[in-house]
Write a structure and sequence with these properties.
By secondary structure, the chain is of the alpha/beta class. The chain is elongated and about 65 Å long. It has two domains: 148 residues, Rossmann fold (3-Layer(aba) Sandwich), CATH 3.40.50.720; 88 residues, ProC C-terminal domain-like fold (Orthogonal Bundle). The protein has an eight-stranded mixed β-sheet, with helices on both faces. The chain has 13 helices and eight strands. The chain binds NADP nicotinamide-adenine-dinucleotide phosphate. NADP nicotinamide-adenine-dinucleotide phosphate binds next to helix 1. The site of NADP nicotinamide-adenine-dinucleotide phosphate has 24 residues, from helix 1.
């Protein structure tokens, strides 16, 4: 497949690495900006061409990823001629996808996708709307594809991604605690990585009620939960979601 990228910054690079770092089955056509990143990718992989213009990317591609960061993104897209047989995958998260859709005009298909940088390692979630066989075949090798039923579900998933920094900060504080107890940072990181990953996997498969029932009455987990609840810590994570969501909706 011929895949174009308009905008080659952080997230586009991660997506391209996710495709190319595991085999070169597609051909990629990159916009000239950002020149340094595009050139670096083209030097690294044999199936990447840096185009002379954004229109050139559109002309060469069956699928076009919109991955630029510009307040003028809709105007820039309005200046391009897309074809009615093309699939457009929008990853722009700071402008309403409805505005991007309108600017692009009549195309074969339009999807809105929110990947995370972990896509470069073929890990992490990819929120996508609407569900389609096209997106399933294209993106499911790159991570855990979660299709939204309605566009607003993408915004809900996007709001949860605002917790990355808070999550790392929590892990960092736990590491500092572990170090004060004499546990080396790398051992603490390995242990926490396996520990929290396994908890997340359990949570996906099991109801909250069943998981709560596993807690020993009066045990250490109950003690830690009670202490955190006294400070509203566990619910505070969910409480910050509404302000985050309001900002996403205002974008
Ligand atoms: N980073 C993430 O984890 C992430 C995740 C999901 C979604 N997103 C969304 O993806 C979009 C891009 O984010 P990013 O983090 O990749 O930003 P970024 O690293 O700043 O990259 C944006 C790129 O867009 C390019 N650009 C600006 N105007 C352009 C134009 N007219 N034509 C072609 N390219 C143009 C910039 O080129 P120059 O460098 O030459 O200015 C830059 O390389 C944003 O809407 C963001 O919300 C990001």
């Amino acid at each position: 497949m011929k895949i174009g990228f308009i905008g080659v910054g952080t997230i586009a690079t991660c997506i391209i690495e996710g495709f190319c770092g595991f085999g070169e089955e597609h051909y990629f056509f990159l916009s000239p900006r950002n020149a340094a990143k595009s050139a670096e990718l083209a030097a690294k992989y044999g199936n990447i061409t840096v185009c002379e213009s954004n229109q050139n990317v559109v002309d060469e591609s069956d699928v076009v990823f919109i991955a630029m960061l510009s307040p003028n993104c809709p105007e820039i897209l309005r200046g391009l001629d897309f074809r009615s047989d093309q699939q457009i995958v929008n990853v722009v998260a700071n402008i309403p996808p409805e505005d991007i859709r309108d600017a692009i005009g009549d195309v074969g298909g339009f999807s809105h996708v929110i990947p995370l940088p972990a896509i470069q390692h073929r890990e992490g979630p990819i929120a996508a709307y609407p569900e389609s066989m096209f997106l399933r075949e294209l993106l499911s090798p790159l991570g855990t594809l979660v299709f939204a039923d309605i566009l607003d579900d993408i915004r809900t998933m996007q709001s949860i991604t605002a917790l990355i920094a808070a999550f790392y900060d929590t892990l960092h504080n736990l590491t500092i605690y572990a170090e004060t107890q004499g546990l080396a940072r790398d051992k603490a990181a390995s242990f926490m990585s396996a520990f929290f990953s396994s908890l997340c996997k359990n949570f996906e498969k099991t109801s909250y009620e069943e998981l709560a029932a596993e807690m020993t009455l009066g045990g250490l987990n109950m003690m830690a939960l009670d202490l955190l609840k006294k400070n509203n810590v566990t619910k505070a994570w969910a409480d910050v979601m509404m302000p985050v969501m309001e900002r996403i909706k205002k974008a």
